[in-house]
Amino acid sequence: MLKMTHLSKVYRTEVVETYALRDFNIDVKEGEFVAVTGPSGSGKTTFLTIAGLLETFTGGEYHLDGIEVSNLNDNARSKIRNEKIGFIFQAFNLIPDLNVFDNIEVPLRYRGMKAAERKQRIMESLERVGLASRAKHYPAELSGGQQQRVAIARALAGSPRLLLADEPTGNLDTQMARGVLELLEEIHRDGATIVMVTHDPELAARAQRNVHIIDGQVVELSEDPRFHSVHAVADGAHG
Amino acid sequence: MQIRPILAAMRHHKAGTVLIALQIALTLAIVCNALFIIQQRITRMSRPSGVSESNLFVIRSDWADKSDTQRIDAQMQADLIALRQLGSVQDAASTNSFPLRGTGWDNYIKLQPDQPRMTTDSAIFFSDDHTLATLGTRLIEGRNFTASEVAAQKPRDAMHAAQVIISKDLARRLFPQGSALGKTIYVSMGQAPSTVIGVTDTLQAHMTGSWAGPYAYNAVLIPARLLNDYTYYLVRAKPGQLEAAMRDAPKALFAQSRMRIIDHKDGVMSFAQVRQRAYERDVGMAILMGIISVVLLAITAAGIVGLTSFWVGQRRKQIGVRRALGATRGDILSYFLTENLLIGIGGVLAGAVLAIGINLWMVTQFEMARLSLAYVVAGVAALLVLGQGAVLAPALRASRVSPVEATRSV
Ligand SMILES: Nc1ncnc2c1ncn2[C@@H]1O[C@H](COP(=O)(O)OP(=O)(O)OP(=O)(O)O)[C@@H](O)[C@H]1O
Ligand SMILES: [Mg+2]
């Protein structure tokens, strides 16, 4: 689904060159649920923005769903973002001027979908996140957890094959974080590929696979049973 | 395509939206009326005078000794002979006034001596048998004055006008049914009848103001030398010799007698100068209206650029989010163009109503014609185009916001 080989990303300013990613290799298979961890500034967000075609990269190769994306023009990249990828941001990123219904409609309109289908998809995805009754509310009228669920509904409404989440629970308390994670797990069970950046080892532990990034490089692809068991215990302790 | 959500979002920027719409409305209302006024002034200025203007000029001679009317009369006749003899001059006539002069005599014209109200009002031009030829104005009916019909006339005496020649428009106004020739009219308070012996082609009165609209082409030619404190000489130069004639004529007059004043600045004026003076307020008004229009349009365009730029800056994050969710650059561009178009449509609708309102008010307050709807339609189109043009640069900037803005925490 998502394959990066020897990928690099350099940010150039007048004074310095920052290697946000260097010789970065990753292969996420269709249907996987991958958690990405790493220290602050290690390049997690950079990886996600490149994976989601929000940004271009400096060197190497990136195949998304079998397509080498560096040759695509801006419109083609927009189309892929619109049709194949769903984004969930730490800051929710709902459009404050639009109500819940209109927020979820945004990507569907860009797809040129008919009004009836849009409406059906919006209501379905709102029901899925348990907020069908809030369609006419504005983001400011919702709690953080509710806003993030609306953002998930917005990402889901377009039935993306790949869901990219950058610290989706970073602004939420434990209770709400758990709810969001359960939602992601459910979406994963329905067949979506999920890549989630998180600082929370407990959440990371619940993913199928962990990717650790340090200094712009993948240092560990952990499917180590010990890793799981440690957190399973921690999980139990919290439970 | 995305009108409903744009309208929905606009409710969250009411103040700016309303401000720009109002600005567009006011600009439209004022510019429509300003352009209409310009067009009206141009129309007025391009009316024909009925005079063959090239090669014609006027001299004003103020008499040094104003008391002796007999001497003035003799001097005028001598002056005319001298002027007509000049090599560069084709013909000359004396008069109290002439088309486009601005001020002059105008009298009530009646059809019956005891009529309580005037039939119409008309300019009075004191003339002689050379006047029509000097003006280059054609007689379309009847005959010209003969030299023997031309008498001396003191300003305070009852008007000597047994025969008159009138302009075509006056003839039609007085006698709409048939020919004016041979008819009797009353041109003065003296209640002496005048017989119409000739009708000229179009001939404009001295007054050019909008108030004089209904009388602008009414003229009565009276066969007399007016023995006033001053006289005008209308002089027609031979073709191509206007400059020479304008130099020769005052010299010839001073050679006749130095007992006169010819103003060195505007004592001798070509008819082109006369026309320019007659309409200089109209030209000034047209220029003022033009400047107001340009300034207003520029301010409105600047307002749109400014506010949209502000909005683009304010919405960078949401533009990034939209791009992340699949908006193409074209989608973002069209968002801002559509938003501006919607505000513009609101503005021009209000502006069209206001434009017509202002005009109707001016119709009642001033001598103003009804605003042609074509101006409103053209103004609406122009302001919508202006809006789209003004919004283009900030909208293009918006379309270049990177989708990665969505991930930036602000
Ligand atoms: N636009 C940019 N210009 C310059 N440097 C940048 C830019 N974006 C990121 N970087 C640098 O690239 C490196 C990786 O940043 P990135 O945001 O990917 O880290 P991160 O792992 O997401 O950190 P965090 O956990 O704090 O969110 C950092 O050193 C950062 O300073
Ligand atoms: Mg980050």
UniProtKB/TrEMBL annotation, chain A:
Which GO cellular component terms are attached? plasma membrane; transmembrane transporter complex
Superkingdom, according to UniProt?
A: Bacteria
Q: Which UniProt keywords apply?
A: ATP-binding, Nucleotide-binding, Transport
- Key word ATP-binding present in the record? yes
The UniProt entry, under InterPro entries, shows:
AAA+_ATPase (IPR003593), ABC_transporter-like_ATP-bd (IPR003439), ABC_transporter-like_CS (IPR017871), ABC_transpr_LolD-like (IPR015854), MacB-like_ATP-bd (IPR017911), P-loop_NTPase (IPR027417)
Q: Name one Pfam family in it.
A: ABC_tran
A GO molecular function term, named singly, is: ATP hydrolysis activity
- Limits of the ABC transporter domain: 2-234
UniProt xrefs under PROSITE patterns: ABC_TRANSPORTER_1, ABC_TRANSPORTER_2
UniProt key word Chloroplast = no
The family this protein is said to belong to? Belongs to the ABC transporter superfamily. Macrolide exporter (TC 3.A.1.122) family.
Q: What is this protein called?
A: Antimicrobial peptide ABC transporter ATPase
